[in-house]
Design brief:
By secondary structure, the chain is mostly helical. It is built from 11 helices and no strands.
């Protein structure tokens, strides 16, 4: 089955002027890519029509032609970032996770050892992904953090940001379902929260200074806990019967 793109699955559209010719689309994209470079270097507040025109090496009139105001330019810059990030960064890691799950299914080990195998493999995969993000693709994380903070101020960014993070959450929930975790949505939230925390901590330090061994231990411990978690229904049943016994006594 063919994968849908983020824009197809979330129906988030670009706000700026639509283009029908390839040359116009090329210039429009060059403007957005220039704006994204400014976001990485200076933050969202550095995105101004004049600064973007200079960075993109286009006339100032080109930026105002394609984008009515600076808010539309920033919103479309984040849309381009989110679309590219999902295709080039996020989707591939989940495809690799599915390969790990396929390997897990084929392993002939006692159940406890299989869970340990899965926790080790997935934590290793996730930490390699985060480490690559924090070193080789650091600009991606910087842009993501900048837009996360800006969407708190700009309502026009919130729909795009929500779609971006919902897509990541959906991917993680699907992995948790395939693992067979209880309440995969909550499990996915916990894993995403841990990943975001590690990414932020890695960004706070110079490249190469963050201890990714500790990150692997953190994710490994979280995965082991999730894999070993009993059924919520069983917990409720046990808790209820225990209460009845206490009341009777």
């Amino acid at each position: 089955m063919a994968r849908t793109t983020m824009m197809e699955s979330t129906q988030v559209n670009y706000r700026g002027r639509k283009t029908s010719r390839s040359r116009s689309e090329h210039r429009r994209r060059a403007i957005l890519e220039a704006a994204l470079r400014i976001v990485v270097a200076e933050g969202v507040r550095g995105v101004r029509h004049r600064a973007v025109a200079k960075e993109a090496d286009v006339p100032l009139s080109a930026t105002t032609y394609y984008f009515n105001d600076i808010h539309d330019l920033i919103a479309d810059t984040f849309t381009l970032f989110a679309e590219s990030a999902m295709t080039l960064v996020v989707d591939p890691i989940y495809e690799q996770a599915e390969q790990v799950l396929a390997e897990y299914v084929g392993v002939s080990l006692p159940e406890g050892e299989k869970q340990e195998f899965l926790a080790e493999k997935l934590s290793e995969l996730l930490v390699l992904y985060i480490e690559n993000e924090a070193t080789e693709k650091r600009d991606h994380l910087l842009a993501e953090q900048a837009f996360m903070h800006e969407c708190l101020r700009d309502p026009k960014l919130r729909k795009v940001a929500h779609s971006y993070f919902e897509r990541m959450k959906d991917q993680m929930t699907r992995v948790c379902q395939q693992i067979g975790l209880n309440d995969p949505e909550i499990a996915g939230d916990l894993l995403m929260g841990a990943i975001f925390k590690i990414e932020f901590e890695a960004l706070m330090l110079p490249p190469g200074m963050y201890d990714f061994r500790r990150a692997r231990k953190t994710l490994g411990m979280l995965l082991r806990g999730l894999l070993a978690a009993p059924s919520p229904v069983a917990n409720l049943s046990q808790g209820y019967s225990g209460s009845v016994r206490s009341y009777s006594e």
